[in-house]
Amino acid sequence: MFSLFLVTPLKLMLLGLVAILGFTIVRYSWVAFSGEADRARFLRSLIMTISAVVVVILSDHLLLFWAAWVSVSLCLHQLILFYPQRPRAQLAAHKKFLLARFSELLLAGAFFALYHQFQTPYISDIVRQTSFAHSSLHLNIAAVLLALVAMIKCAQLPVHGWLMQVVEAPTPVSALLHAGIVNLGGILLLFFAPVLASSSIACWLIIVCAGISTVIAGLVSTTRISIKVKLAWSTSSQMGLMLVEIALGLYEMALLHLFAHSFYKAYSFLNSGNTVNHYLAAKLAGEVKPKVRNWCVALLLSSLMLAVAQWQFAVMTSFAATILVWFALSALIVPSVTAWDKTMLPRLMITLAFAAGLLTLYTTAKHSLAQITGLNVPLNLAADGLVALMFILLFALSLALQYSPHVGWVKRLFIWLNAGAYLDEWATRLTLKWWPSQSLLELQQAQVQMEPEAK
């Protein structure tokens, strides 16, 4: 007999993540809103949003999953508009509302196609039958629609603007959104991974679109001064990377990425008030900017570490994943080889030991998560090579922006990136043209009338 809910080791892990983040954000909100008259309203919407996420994770019925998915968005809408007098919050909520309704229609279409294909509304049964089913039109349609829903939920370019403007909402909302809600796109694809893997069209769609979004959003984040906006662009980039990992079939790596990103973003937003103090402390400590030769040394040392790890344990099966870990280890090592003084050797030894520990932890976690997900698909070598080239391009352009800012093409690239690639302006105009927000227009008119009085 089938049930509306299903508990698996993967879902238990995700529930643990939701419980930790939910408790932390609720506790933070209880203290942060102690002077607010509407604290009860905020906490009520926050708890309802978290509860809806729990239902999404536990659902094993297409209709229940869809209803919970819609509920998450509607509850989040109330949180974004907690301060309705802010025009940017109104704009973000309006764009998010329209995109959410569109993605929910796409999700309904995907579920209808899956039901038509397998004649069952139970997700576990659909996933089980997909492993033995041949590729068909309905299966391809469902996979493409699921890919589009995931990219919209993960704020991929060009529908990313609402995520940047949500920083107008209270800090706990940003923490909940960036550490949890946007991850639902990746969770959706992990739950329906066999469906996605059955369609090469859907996989290539994610690899190209999310890969480009990863590169552009990652570069744009380096041009931002505002801490929250910088973190928002970083989220769009990291979500794109997670989607690419899922499309490549690196499910355990995507799940590890999901957990690490969730904890990091929750901490970053809830601790964003201390970022200025950390920046000033680094300046007072005489922070030294790494030179190109320092990066070369770090890249060499990290490549040696990876070579030893691969020789002993064969940890890397994807070229793109190897490039990503290589750059991550290099970024960790480069500060220790920046200052060539008498303390460099012990500092370098400590850093290398720490890097070796992280690499060991990564290998262990990757192996354990592979057992939990229980998913395994052949690696597409062409797609893997393309993603690796994207990572190399991202790294090279980041260095160019940092070390050659006065070169002509780099200056033009910086201006383009600093404008957010001009994509959100286009999306905003199109959104307000197709479906104007009356409350937003009234709010903007009231502000225009107040400006002469203020002067």
UniProtKB/TrEMBL annotation:
The chain crosses the membrane at residues 12-30, 42-58, 96-115, 135-152, 173-193, 199-220, 241-260, 294-313, 319-340, 347-365, 385-403. InterPro entries: ND/Mrp_TM, NU5C-like, Transporter_DabB. Forms a complex with DabA. Keywords: Cell membrane, Membrane, Transmembrane, Transmembrane helix, Transport. It comes from Vibrio ostreae. Residues 59-276 form the NADH:quinone oxidoreductase/Mrp antiporter transmembrane domain. GO terms for cellular component: endomembrane system; plasma membrane. GO terms for biological process: ATP synthesis coupled electron transport; electron transport coupled proton transport. It is found in: Cell membrane; Endomembrane system; Membrane. Part of an energy-coupled inorganic carbon pump. It comes from the Bacteria. Belongs to the inorganic carbon transporter (TC 9.A.2) DabB family. This is Probable inorganic carbon transporter subunit DabB. Pfam families: Proton_antipo_M. The keyword Cell membrane applies. GO terms for molecular function: NADH dehydrogenase (ubiquinone) activity; NADH dehydrogenase activity. It is a multi-pass membrane protein.
